[in-house]
Design goal:
This protein is of the alpha/beta class. The protein has helices spanning 23-33, 54-71, 91-98, 129-146, 159-162, 176-188, 211-219, 241-250, and strands at residues 7-11, 37-45, 77-85, 105-109, 151-152, 192-196, 225-228, 255-260, 263-268.
């Protein structure tokens, strides 16, 4: 590989509701690819925490991660993470989830608006998209202000699914004032912005967020960026990370970040 410290900081195992693989299988894939580090960030959808017995799954993930960390000691750095979805929709659930383990890394996500299904399930029309995106950025700002995470995941998440409708053309630049408000909070709170590479293998064909937003984060004083494939199966571990590094270099970043016990470790891209 061209890059020495390739790391994947956003992956899911069988302990996520939509995951496929055992943690050891994900770790073995990372090791075979020569990755520097792997962080498993299984889902915790906070508004469903109590109904779906999410805590039980998270405990299982942590148990298997501890075993994998011991097995790959000195060969692959393995970090214990969690993707905290919609924490402002149920702060009590978020607090309880974070108390279950000594997490290294917390991703903050917004997969659905209050009272709505995940953006994956919504139908999009030219008429409803502007309102949905306005609500999304308002709630995303609320999430950013909550400061309950280390890195903000896939900032342009809805665009991944809106792109499936060829009749609708939306770009993050059209909401840059709202995006700036979110980015400014991240900078002020010394939080990271995630570059999620899943879009590179989906219809949208770009990272989430795209280069325009990442460049803007840099302009506003953003220092910390994490990068992750959002892999839900072993075959996608590490996918798109090198392309993401190339984009970060174009935006002026010389380092990216991994987290150990919530402490940012700055690693050189080259």
């Amino acid at each position: 590989m061209k890059y020495r410290f390739i790391s994947d900081s956003h992956t899911h195992s069988e302990y996520s509701f939509d995951g496929k693989e055992k943690i050891m299988m994900m770790a073995e894939r990372a090791y075979q690819l020569g990755l520097y580090s792997l962080t498993i960030t299984d889902h915790c959808e906070c508004q469903e925490y109590y109904q779906q017995q999410v805590g039980q799954s998270l405990r299982g993930a942590v148990r298997d991660l501890v075993k994998a960390r011991a097995f790959y000691q000195n060969r692959l750095k393995i970090y214990i993470g969690i993707e905290l979805g919609q924490p402002t929709q149920d702060p009590a659930a978020a607090k309880e989830a974070l108390s279950l383990a000594d997490y290294d890394f917390v991703l903050g996500s917004l997969h659905n608006l209050r009272g709505e299904q995940d953006f994956y399930f919504l139908e999009y029309t030219p008429d409803n998209v502007p309102e949905l995106l306005d609500r999304y950025y308002r709630e995303l700002l609320e999430l950013a202000v909550s400061n309950s995470f280390d890195s903000l995941a896939h900032l342009t998440y809805p665009y991944r699914y809106i792109a499936a409708n060829p009749e609708i053309s939306v770009r993050p630049e059209q909401a840059m004032e709202q995006i700036d408000a979110v980015l400014e909070v991240l900078v002020r709170n010394h939080r990271a912005l995630e570059v999620n590479t899943s879009g590179l293998r989906q219809r949208i064909h770009q990272t989430l967020p795209d280069e325009t937003v990442v460049r803007r984060f840099r302009e506003l004083g953003g220092k910390y960026v994490t990068i992750g494939s959002d892999a839900h199966r072993w075959g996608d571990v590490g996918a798109g990370i090198e392309e993401g590094f190339e984009m970060l270099l174009r935006c002026g970043f010389t380092h990216f970040t991994v987290y150990h016990q919530h402490q940012p470790e700055m690693l050189p891209i080259l």
